[in-house]
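Internal tracking record. Fields below are filled automatically when a chain is submitted to the structure queue. Please do not edit lines marked as system-generated. If the sequence contains nonstandard residues, flag them in the REMARKS field before resubmitting.
Queue: standard
Priority: normal
Entity type: single polypeptide chain
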Amino acid sequence: MAEVAARAGVSSQTVSRVANNHDNVDENTRAKVLAAMQDLGYRPNSAARALVTGRFGALGVVSFDVGAHGNARTLAAIADAAREAGFSVNFMGVRVQTEAAVRQAFQHLTLQSVDGIVLIESQMLDTPSLHLPPTMPVVVADGDTGHEYPNVDFDQARGTRSLVRHLLDLGHRTVHHVAGPRDSFAARRRSEAWERTLVAADAPVRPTLYGDWTTESGYLAGRTLAQDPNVTAVFAANDQMALGILRAMHEAGRSIPDEVSVAGFDDVPEARFFEPPLTTVHQDFDVVGRHCVTLLLEQIERREHAPRRLAVEPTLVVRASTAPPPARP
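SYSTEM-GENERATED OUTPUT FOLLOWS
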């Protein structure tokens, strides 16, 4: 630190303030110090800094299937919000859906000296309970709201209800559903809300078909649905499966939306370029990620708070893939 101070022509205290990302440093001075750090290969000692500040300056994230659209977007938003708050992010992927695997991931991150951890749960574990290290600040995203930890998720029921009501209001007698995996919290909530909305509208509830979030699984379900002339509206639990359903309907000669309306969930960037553009439910994953970091920092800074659940409201986006059903003879 003394060498950096000498190279930049500032005091060691100024170097310390820059290293700890304090905002009471002139920007020109900060630039000189950062340049000196780079020239000299200086890296702050995280253990020593933790003794002074009480923080390591890093957050951990534990997640299943980071390739999934929602998980990837949430992770990116957490990283952005953490960086703005002066924290880095250490990621740990989990392949096995067990509490033991999650606890092991937490132990690995604890050894990496993180100040708090976000668990993007998304998939059901082998046990309804979740017991994590009591001294570690934790926030759960897209998980079981029955946990004692602060939770951030979308209001899946509200988004599903708005979509199903949209299709019923167009005149469809009922709405068929291609659900996501049975072990997914989001898929279960969307499926339950779909059924409740139909029951409340006194509409028939047809058997659910299940996919695995992939376009291929939507295509296979769509081939089955396309053979039933009574199918006029389909709600897919995500946009990728909706894309597969569109393909299957086209191959079967079922016109979209003149004969069959198809809707998805998530509003992936490509949804508006589907043929036809897809009606779906928009989820702002950036908001979820930022809420996760905010709740985690509240715990790290030991602010008074009670465990709580933040439900982010999704938005119905109506495009050209839905329309009134064909007139009955």
